[in-house]
Amino acid sequence: MVFRLVLGCGTICRQVTERLPERDGDRRLVITDDESVVETLREESVPARSADPSDPDAIENVDHPDVIFVASDRTDVNRAALEAARERFPAASIVAYLGGNATAADRQRFDELADHVVDPTTAMADRVIGGTAMPTAESAIELREQLVGIDGRLAVVAHDNPDPDAIASAVALVAIAESVGVDADACYFGNISHQENRAMVNLLGLNLRNLDRNDSLGEYSAFALVDHSRPGVNDQLPSDLHVDIVIDHHPPRGPVPGEFVDLRQQAGATSTVLTEYLDHVDLDFDPATATALLYGIRVDTNDFAREVSPADFRAASLLWPHVDTSLLDQIEQPSLEGETLETIARAIKNRVQRDSVAVASVGRIGDRDALPQAADQLLAMEGVDTTLVFGFADEMVFLSARSRAADVDLGETLRDAFDRIGSAGGHADMAGAQLEIGILGSADDEEEIESIVSVVEEVITNRFFEAIDSRPGVPVGAYTQTSEWLFTQRGEPEDGESA
User: Fold this and answer.
1) pTM value?
2) How far apart are CA 151 and CA 432, in angstroms?
């Protein structure tokens, strides 16, 4: 339950009041000296009281609010209301509107007393450059209340085969949960096989639990998803699982469940969002967690060169004083294994290139994290601006794509091409997918397996080229019943079913 107190109700107050989320048990109260506003608010079922918001007596008998919004149009009124509110409610989170006639002394006083200051002279500029992308103090309070309400153990689940951003985000949310007395585990399905990712976990001593599809989840009473937003999509959780918390920076492709949901698409990394929450709850930055979060931001933004926002730079500046730079150097420069070099060589040898787009199958793989490194190497070749590299492991085919073309959105391209037959997604310049080949496990001999693999390679290659050539959002059309059957069957087709 959150109690919000609004002191003064000027030009922006009504818009804010109308947008305040209403949930069962939440309370709000507006105190303003404009009786017509009080009457209007009451007609709209908003609790309001007629009083001078700058008078300390007006809040003398008010219960302790969680969030206070100082919202008169006048700077002098807001300053007096802010001073009275801070003295009366020292633990409350206060957002104060500066008003239109602030002096240097006013600005200094607002900065001293308010947790957040809304300055009309800079708000428009912030909006134009993409906004601050900071979670409000209110959302930090809501996250904390969601965590405090958990009775039992929390599973913080990263997406399958997690990357640094997902790993760091999971570890950070566990730290926040444990700070309020909730036992939690950072969990993932699949493998951590990329050399840099393994180095990050091992060198920083991060505590992660590797879940298996057959593991019972009964020991957990609550679930949080980080760096992805839907159970059963890019994780091995039941699709109908009740989710308590979702924190992600990717655009969702479907309804997002969750009691508390923060989808920050303008942030370059989920690690940025978790950094801000750590800062808001005033939790000390542990060096291992800070190093992991900074590395997660750097990887997902390609060292602040891809889909970066002001929030990413701000998060990095918060983390930097606590980062173990010597360990960060070791994480970023692991040695390449022989299998990775062999995968890169096969990608270069097997590539099929049409104009500036290169696609390569590397056949059977033991380390799926060699694929993005191979895709990066193809992208470095002259005349190539978009790449797709894929390989086979057991009954799965894994795909990794890279692009520096301004007119290509790889996340949407892979979704259009492969969402019907697997799981796909990512960013405009970096994306991936995984597809299940249902009949591969039932093949009788190596010759039959190679025949199936050859057909799958042709299907994937053609669908990717077709998706690249199609308009954004238009389904890929050249898709045969035979090729779809390859990805959906387990064993022999049933009677009457066309192969």
Assistant:
1) 0.56
2) 36
Query: Quick one: 196 and 75 in the same domain?
Result: no
Q: How far apart are CA 11 and CA 123, in angstroms?
A: 14
Q: pLDDT tens digits for 385-417? A: 999 999 998 888 999 999 988 888 898 899 888
Do 444 and 483 share a structural domain? yes
Distance CA 452, CA 437 (A): 9
Kindly report the CATH number assigned to the domain that includes residue 159. 3.90.1640.10
Q: Which among 105, 106, 104, 81 has a CA at the least distance from the CA of 94?
A: 81
**CA-CA distance, 42 to 22, in Å (whole number)?**
16
Q: What are the tens digits of pLDDT across the range 199-214?
A: 999 999 999 999 998 8
- The tally of CA atoms less than 13 A away on the side-chain side of residue 468 is 23
CA 347 – CA 354 distance, rounded (Å): 15
Strand 352-354 with 357-364, pairing:
antiparallel
Instruction: State the residue for tokens 């001593």.
Output: 205
Residue 261, helix vs strand vs coil? strand
C-alpha–C-alpha distance, residues 162 and 169, integer Å: 10
- Kindly state whether residue 46 falls inside one of the protein's structural domains: yes
